Structures are given as structure tokens and as C-alpha cells.
Amino acid sequence: MITDLTALLQKLNAIVRADDNWGTPANYIPELARINPEQFAITVITADGTVHSAGDADTRFSVQSITKVFTLAIALGRSGDQLWHRVGREPSGSAFNSIVQLEREQGRPRNPFINAGAIVTTDEVLAGRAPRDALAEIVQFVRTAAGSDDIHINDAVAASETQHGHRNFALAHFLASFDNLKNPPEMTLGTYFHHCALEMTTTQLAHAGRFLMGAPDMPKLISTARVRRLNALMLTCGHYDGSGDFAYRVGIPGKSGVGGGILAIVPGQASIAVWSPGLNRYGNSHKGTEALATLARQMNWSIF
Ligand code: DON
To answer: Least C-beta-crowded within 10 Å: which of 3, 122, 124, 222?
Structure first.
């Protein structure tokens, strides 16, 4: 087993760049579609706080659905288990933006990580406030978790998604038709699009994930029981209809975003952020997934 993590990440970076298949960036958000796919970054922070990085680890990217982990943590903090009346905890087996299950299951999304479920958790965080107040809470939570105030929302990305977010508008209005939205759909969606447009580097994101490691000396933002539950949901639902494949190949909890980032946690041992904007057929980072599979194998990291 290679234990010089920095050397291993540099080797991984070289292997990743040698392969021509970079995948395709998300095309339904124009601001993301124009990003150069030929980029890769990885950061690993171990339990003792050591930071190891390789590649474009200082480049900011749109974290998108990875923010759903943070909004879920906040929603559970505000509402506790009441939240589960509005959203389930089962893998969906459907694409992240699918609408079909929502009608069959009377407007209760399968889990908080598919778009419909994340719109519900955002609605819970919004709780009748002005969107800017809910966003301030979300941004502050992420900054506290990351230990950095230099984390911001990219308004151009949020505007780009607002203009082209017909599916999310459909999902939000569908939720409202089942009385599963407490705020006007446009307000909940405005909050949702803006928190998805948060930008971070892999270094910042790996720092922000440390509270999910459940190790001593980590930021204690939520209870240990809740840390375990968030990790369970990341493992079972964090990669949508690719969650089983990710669990099989990588073997640790992870949450992907359509910007090409993945936050992965080795409980008690490491917080990992990887980024490469080209996506696979599930809408998860192609090279990010490959790199995590190799890293987990080389480090003998698995929850199983
Ligand atoms: O709602 C959307 O479609 C995006 N803001 C987030 C989707 C996403 O990141 C899916 N992840 N792979």
C-alpha cells in the first residue's frame, strides 16, 4: 500500500490526464456548458488535519448538488425528524431531475438528494424567511465548516439555471400541487438555484467535509448520530441512479454535483474532494469517479 498520499495523488493526476476521455460538462446550465472539461483536481484531508492536493486544486468550481448535504444538515437541525414526513430516505433508481416518481408517490420525493427532495429541504430551510436570509444561513454554515470566509455564490450561474430550469420549476409546482411546499415555488427555487451556485476549490470543499468524518478534533456542527445518517444517505442516494455503482466501485459515502465535483468521506479517516467537469451518463464526474475508485483501492479505504 502506498502511504505517501501526496505522491499517490500526483501519480493519480498524471494517470487521469493521460486519458483522453474527459466526459461532457452539464449542458442544461449554459454557464456550466462552456467550462473546459480538461481539468482535474483532488484534495484529501486526513484525520490529523494534513492536506494533500494534486491538479487544479485552487480552481473554483460550481459545487451544485454537493450543497444538498449542507442544506440537509441545516434542515434536520431546524426541523428534526419532522422533515421525513415530507421527503423519504430511499434510493430513487431514477435520474436526479426525474419527475415520474413524484406523481406515483403523492408528491413525497424519494430522498433529499434528488432535485425534488432538495427543493423540499430548501423549502424547509427557507421557512417563510426572505431568500437572502436563508441563503445567508446556508453560506455561513458552509464557511464555518470550511473554516474560510472566501466562499461565494456565483450569481451568473444561478441566473443561467433560473433561465433554463424548466424541469425544476415543474418539480416545484408539482410539489406545491401536493401541498408539499410551504413557500411560493419561485422563492424556494430562487434559494435552491443560488445555493447550488456556490463555488469552492477542492481544498475548500475537502475542508468543508471534515465535519462528516466523525473524527475527534473535527468541526462539530451536528451530532455524531446525524453525521452517521448523512453518510448513510450519501452512500445510498448521493449519486442518484449511479449510487449502487459508486458504492460497488468506490465503497465510501459520496455526494456528486453536476459541476463535476464529488465530496467523499472515509469515516474517521479522510475527507476527499475531487473535481473534473466532464460527466458520465448518470450526471456524475467521469474522471472524479475513476480517480476515487483508484484512490480507495490504493489506500485500502472502504466502509465494508
Ligand atoms: O437542480 C439542478 O439541476 C442543479 N442545480 C443541481 C443538479 C446536480 O448537481 C446533479 N448532480 N449530479
So the answer is: 3
ipTM over 0.95: yes
Active site residue 65: yes
Domain boundary among 167, 195, 223: 195
- Give residue 3's pLDDT: 65
Residues 101-120 have pLDDT tens digits of 999 999 999 999 999 999 99
Q: 150-163, pLDDT tens digit by residue? A: 999 999 999 999 99
Compute CA distances 248 → 30, 251, 303, whole Å: 32, 6, 11
Summarised one tens digit per residue, pLDDT across range 32-50 is 999 999 999 999 999 999 9
CA pair distance 220, 15, nearest whole angstrom: 36
Q: Is 191 in the pocket of ligand 1 (CB under 6 A)?
A: no
Among 195, 210, 228, the domain-final residue is 195
Indicate whether 58 and 205 sit together in one domain.
yes
Same domain for 60 and 203, yes or no, is: yes
C-beta atoms surrounding 169 within 10 Å: 13
In terms of C-beta density within 10 A (0-12 exposed, 13-18 middle, 19 or more buried), how is residue 103 classed?
A: exposed
Residue 248, domain CATH? 3.40.710.10
- CB of 141 closer than 6 angstroms to any ligand 1 atom: no
Q: Atom 2 in ligand 1: which residue has the minimum CA distance?
A: 115
Range of the domain at 99: 66-195
What does the block give as the cell for 118? 432538495
State the catalytic residue, choosing from 125, 240, 255, 274: 240
Q: Is 68 a catalytic residue?
A: yes
